[in-house]
Structure formats: structure tokens, C-alpha cells
């Protein structure tokens, strides 16, 4: 709106969860024999979409390429800072340059949280030691289950998971599909958070320094990409949300609502907040906004309820926008204009 474009309004910078894209996505190394991976864009779109659907703010980071035609100089600089990006998502761990792999290790030891998922025939020599596992992998031969479904079970309460959480995923790797092959783990020194129906580890947490790494023995993102089951999406969303809930920064404002995207603007002069919510879904969605104070509002649309002293719940119809005008100091707020009221009520 024109009002938000004025200098007295400032958009709140929301903490970001980082997604690392390896350099061979955009740069072709002469030694890389496997350069025709057709699912690059759908893979990262899947990850980005699932993060957005859980109200997270993804930031894509490109691993610097070692440009051989430029005397081995890096294409750009990228520092992994746990303070700036406390959680780093690295789906399909296949290729990472040796130089940047050492930066990832340093990032974890210094307090960062890395989540990564398995990919068949990767080029990371010390990955088993770093992830705290002993595997039965055979290079060039994908491991596959003979099950119709992969049943994922939680072993404990963690993030949004309970010790009763369970997901069923259809197995689609019956034709020796390298992209959905799993990592057969013999033993692990880490903590198993998710396991399959035969109690084989799926998600393992290993501590390093003051940080931690989460390793998925199954390529969950590739499975979700090729899987029509609703549970595959639910599992990814629960996993990403739990990583952020456990290791993300503390926030004074909490927002929750599937498929909803939100932004917050603060007026430094009048101490007012404007919260704008967009429903990306094709159906109705509900959401909840929790504030560190009691908001003062003159009127709310019928779809919005002041649930408790600092909690607002709302229902938003498909592809619609909700605007909430709040006062952070308990004073009355000027009632929304007719245009705002129209948008609020949909």
C-alpha cells in the first residue's frame, strides 16, 4: 500500500533459514562425469516451497565455484556464519568442493546446524566420520527396499514430532533408481530421531563442537518430489519446522499457519504494527499470531478472533490477503479504512 511506502514504516527483517546450492548446479567441472541431472530445478523448488509452506524464510546460498579458466579463483565469497544463518539445509549431498566442505565443518563446529540428506555415489570422503555412521554402501550399486511403503516413525519428542508421529511414503525405486536409493547404516554413534518399520535409522543427529549435524539416510527431498503421497510433504514440513523450532533464534513474534506467508511492518513514530498475511493455497487456511504484548485494536473482521491476551487466530479464504493493524502500546488504533475492511473481510 502507499501508506507502507512512507519513511515512517519499516519492514521487520525475519530470520532466514539457509539452503545451500552446490557449485556444480551452475558451473561444469571437467572432472564431473555426471552432469545431466534433470531434477536440479524441481529439487530446489520443492525444498523452497516446503519451507515457505511452514512459515519459514528460506535464503538460497550458492557455493562458490572454483573457476578453472580464472586460475582457480572463486566465483564469489561466501562465509557461513551461525549467527546469520543458524540452520543450513543441504538436500541431496552429492558434490561439494573440498575447500567448501571444510567451511561447512567449521560452520557446524562453531555452532551451526546442518541438515543434509543422502545421495547415491557422492564425492565426500570423510562424510561417514562426520555424520557418525558406519554404512554398507557399495559404489555404483544403489541400495533399495523391497517394501511397498516406507513407514517413518519418530523415536522421541523432538520439535513438532511426538513419540507417536508416523508417516507412510510409497516406495518408487523398484527399477534401481539412484535418486531414491537409501544409505544402509550398520551402526551409528549419533542419536536416532526417526527410524523405519524395521528400526533402521532414518534421521540421525550428531554433535560437533557447539553445533550439530542431522543426516537423513533416505533422500527425503527426492522421495517427496516423486511421491504423490501427502505424507511425504508432511514429513518434510515437520522436519524443517522442527529444525527451526529447536535451533532457530528466539523470536518475540510467532506465526503459525500452513501455506500462509506473512510480513510485518513497524511504524516507529506511532508504535503501530501492520501484519499482512497471504494465503497461497487453493483452499481455506487458519493461522495464529502470537505477540509479546496485548495488542490494541478498534475492530477486527469476523474471520479474526482475539483468542487470548496476546494471541490472534484467523481464517483466510483461498488466495486472499489479510491485513491487521495493531497498536503495540495499548492505545486505540484508527479503524481500518473502507478499503482495508474490504480486504480484511475478503
Describe this structure in words.
It is a single chain. This protein is an alpha+beta fold. The protein contains six helices and 21 strands. The strands form five sheets. A nine-stranded mixed β-sheet has the order 3-2-6-7-14-13-12-9-10. It has a four-stranded antiparallel β-sheet with strand order 1-16-17-21. Helix 1 (40-53) links the parallel strand 2 (17-21) and strand 3 (58-62). The longest helix has 18 residues, at 230-247. The two termini are 16 Å apart.
Derived structural class: alpha+beta
Please state roughly what percent of the residues sit in beta strands, choosing from under 5%, 5-15%, 15-25%, 25-35%, 35-45% or over 45%. 25-35%
Approximate shape = globular
Task: Give the SSE order as H and E letters.
Answer: EEHEEEEHEHEEEEEEEHHEEEEEEEH
Average predicted local confidence, pLDDT: 84
Query: How far is the first residue's CA from the last residue's CA?
Result: 16 Å
Rg, nearest Å? 23 Å
Biggest sheet architecture: 9 strands, mixed
What's the total number of strands? Answer: 21
Helix content: 10-25%
Brief descriptors of the model:
nine-stranded mixed beta sheet, four-stranded antiparallel beta sheet, 21 strands, 32% strand, globular
Give the gist of this structure.
The protein has 346 residues and is α+β, with helices and mostly antiparallel strands.
